Amino acid sequence: MNIGDAAKASGVSAKMIRYYEEIGLVPKAARRGSGYRDYGEADVHRLRFIRRARDLGFAVEEIGELLALWSDRTRASSAVKAMALSHVEDLRRKRDEIDGMIATLEGLAACCHGDDRPDCPILEELATETAPVGPPPGPPRFGRPGGRAPQRS
């Protein structure tokens, strides 16, 4: 099958198939007399494996390791399990970082009046050199002594 057919069958775009060939995750496809790439079922199966690993968030380097383990019939499943559990820890760390970013942005948005005035605690926080990640400490100060919000007229 040509690259378009392989892309449809695997769920991997033709552009990504070319990239995976270039970096060695997928062997270079055989070429027809016309010069078009020619893919078989084994290639599509490998591409599906790669797509599923990418869907689970594995990095390209890790996918290369997983492919090597998949191809090695003498592998120990403990090596695969260790990779999976290590990846779970990476995902948990990323989730914690995202949760911190969400908390920070929610806290900042709660401090912002969102009206026609130019003062904005969100922009003020982004402008600080070392903006912390996580909920803002204490009540918002709004740049005034005593931390009181400006009174509306």
Automatic annotation (TrEMBL):
It comes from the Bacteria. It is found in: Cytoplasm. Residues 128-153 are annotated as: Disordered. GO terms for molecular function: copper ion binding; DNA binding; DNA-binding transcription factor activity. Residues 1-69 form the HTH merR-type domain. This is Cu(I)-responsive transcriptional regulator. GO terms for biological process: positive regulation of DNA-templated transcription. GO terms for cellular component: cytoplasm. Keywords: Cytoplasm, DNA-binding, Transcription, Transcription regulation. Residues 133-142 have a biased composition (Pro residues). The keyword Ligase does not apply. It comes from Rubellimicrobium roseum. It holds the Pfam family MerR. PANTHER family: HEAVY METAL-DEPENDENT TRANSCRIPTIONAL REGULATOR HI_0293-RELATED, REDOX-CYCLING DRUG-SENSING TRANSCRIPTIONAL ACTIVATOR SOXR. Residues 143-153 have a biased composition (Low complexity).
